[in-house]
Specification:
mainly alpha, single chain, 2 helices
Length: 116
């Protein structure tokens, strides 16, 4: 009878220690997840600031080139190279804008997950 009680108590002690180990592991993983989210948020914000600067520059370049090309079109002096350059600049601006929007969505998603 004493052996059975001793075996049961030993099993209970090991089980209790295992649960506390699992809880510690879960707490460590939650802390690591929070740290990873903070790191990704900071990286995304830095990328957003850089992309915003690039987008503003591209917008100014596009506006300047558009007015120049439109003036040449009115005079019927627009060259195919100018039109191609304008189209490529629009494509570059659109690409930067897409990156900007994607980073904004990533930041919103990370903040949403951090609140959960």
């Amino acid at each position: 009878m004493k052996k059975i009680i001793l075996a049961v108590l030993t099993a209970i002690i090991f089980t209790a220690c295992g649960e506390s180990g699992n809880r510690k592991e879960i707490a460590r993983r939650k802390a690591a997840l929070a740290e990873k989210q903070q790191t990704e948020l900071k990286k995304a914000q830095d990328g957003l600031w850089k992309t915003d600067s690039l987008l503003q520059i591209a917008e100014k370049e596009l506006a300047a080139m558009t007015t120049e090309v439109e003036a040449h079109k009115k005079e019927l002096k627009a060259t195919p190279e100018e039109l191609t350059a304008l189209t490529q600049l629009r494509m570059r601006r659109d690409s930067i804008r897409t990156q900007y929007e994607a980073l904004g969505l990533k930041i919103r998603y990370i903040r949403k997950k951090m609140k959960e």
